[in-house]
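Hypothesis: this fold can be encoded by more than one sequence.
Test: take the structure tokens below, design a sequence, compare later.
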């Protein structure tokens, strides 16, 4: 993980909710792909293709079955970003 970018990351639970809200509201080719870039060589995976996800702990487990050899059998752990302080902007709702 690159130091100093924690505040630019999005929790998996937020990505899942956003994906659910967007799907079905517009044509499929206009729907963005929500992906997670897995650390340790797991490459990019669809956000909702996790094996397990503990939202309270902020830990998701993925398996990259399409990769050859041991990489396809390995488990890859994705950790949600550390919580950031709530920000309130003038004239808008509270953002998390």
């Amino acid at each position: 993980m690159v130091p100093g970018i924690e505040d630019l990351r999005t929790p998996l639970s937020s990505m899942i909710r956003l994906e659910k809200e967007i799907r079905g509201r517009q044509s499929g080719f206009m729907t963005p792909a929500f992906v997670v870039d897995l650390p340790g060589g797991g490459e990019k995976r669809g956000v909702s293709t996790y094996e397990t996800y503990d939202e309270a702990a902020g830990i998701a487990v993925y398996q990259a079955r399409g990769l050859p050899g041991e990489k396809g059998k390995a488990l890859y752990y994705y950790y949600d970003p550390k919580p950031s302080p709530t920000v309130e902007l003038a004239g808008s709702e509270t953002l998390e």
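The CA atoms of residues 11 and 80 lie 5 Å apart. The beta strands are 35-38, 43-46, 52-54, 59-63, 75-79, 87-88, 94-95.
Hypothesis status: open.
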